[in-house]
């Protein structure tokens, strides 16, 4: 368990900016800067999570592609409305979790880490839904 405690703590700490981006517009009113920060932070965290699944030289080609699949369309999504980008990102966090659960390493992870990954993915998904609502109905 000890080798996972830092991962669990950092995982929950990484959730704070997501929660802040949901709470800030509720307090001050929505803003384009908040929406951009949330989107960029979400892309960064998603890329980090997907990148952690990429074990160069230790996996099949198909598994390597699955690890980066949610990130590849990001550049093309930038031409779409913010709500569509956020919807892709929200779904992609679930994809990354599903890909992680399908790896052989998942069985070696501590149950608390597995639980944390599910909780964080669920909370991040809900944050995306709230921010989509804030972006579609700003006031």
Automatic annotation (TrEMBL):
Transmembrane segments: 12-32, 38-56, 68-96, 116-137
Pfam family, one: DUF3429
InterPro entries (alphabetical): DUF3429
Keywords carried by this UniProt record: Membrane, Transmembrane, Transmembrane helix
Keyword Transmembrane helix recorded: yes
Organism superkingdom: Bacteria
Protein's recorded name: DUF3429 domain-containing protein
Species of origin: Pseudoalteromonas lipolytica
